[in-house]
Specification:
The structure is a homodimer of 157-residue chains.
Chain A (H helix, E strand, L loop, with lengths): L8 H12 L5 E9 L5 E9 L1 E3 L2 E7 L3 H9 L1 E6 L5 E13 L5 H11 L10 E14 L9 E4 L2 E2 L2
Antiparallel strand pairs in A: 1-2, 1-5, 3-4, 4-7, 5-6, 6-7, 7-8, 8-9
Chain lengths: 157, 157
């Protein structure tokens, strides 16, 4: 990296919001389930993201592992890259909507940011609305102090 | 994307090996644990990666969530980005070594590829050796068919 100073928390929050509202942005979505032996089983996949009224909105097939894990266990951990300029978000499931019942603001907001409309995708798509509980942002090791931007659902700055 | 044709499986395997052997490459590492209520709980973090004799080698602090989840549940799902040119790897834990007991070939291979040596990092670092069970590679929707490159630990091509 350069010899730049670690960013202030205010700057990191601003940078994070730029990332979350970028058109066509993808996010790494980690969820967990239980395998047949009862062991916790990790899942991970990149998905389009929309940031609507302080919520993360994802859309995926109803029978996908991500949808099943989220509806069963309610938790996701999201990574916005690249890996040396990350935003990490722990989030809980707040709402699940089929294409025929999704609030118009959610569907329109998603289509506008993600540049595709799950309502027109065919198959059984679900909109998953996630409430962020914890947000962290860092680039390199020198930014590990001060990486917490949100805790228990409340922005710290 | 461009109007390029979907890559052949041979090409995807070659591209995947280029990604896995790149110097200083980071990988998104998803693991799972169980929270206090028994719910499966996802974790995700970017880590440096080395590819040594068909194994993925990671290094992290012994008390990190990733190390605890892996030693408890043995499974990880890894994503190599960017999100529109991904390699997804499901892997199982094969070996865990402290800095004072790690085989020299593992430690040297890791240091050579990752460009840092966990043995010199201080703290209690663990080397985690993972055996890939399933590898998939795709760029966009047109590459979803044929994305499986390895199944049950065996390359398909």
């Amino acid at each position: 990296m350069t010899d730049a100073q670690p960013r202030s928390q205010e700057q990191r929050k601003a940078d994070t919001l730029v990332k979350l509202t970028a058109p066509g942005v993808d996010v790494w979505v980690a969820t967990a389930g239980a395998d047949t032996s009862g062991h916790a089983s990790p899942y991970l996949v990149p998905l389009s993201l929309a940031w609507i009224e302080e919520r993360i909105v994802l859309a995926t097939e109803a029978d996908s592992v991500t949808a099943r894990n989220l509806t069963s266990h309610q938790r996701a951990r999201l990574g916005l890259g690249p890996t040396r300029d990350v935003v990490m978000i722990d989030a809980e499931l707040e709402g699940v909507y089929g294409a025929d019942e999704v609030p118009a603001g959610v569907a329109q907001g998603y289509a506008a940011q993600a540049d595709w409309d799950p309502r027109e995708a065919g198959g059984q798509m679900l909109f998953l609305v996630l409430r962020p509980l914890r947000i962290q942002a860092w680039r390199e090791v020198d930014e590990l102090p001060g990486r917490a931007l949100m805790r228990d659902g409340t922005w710290l700055i």
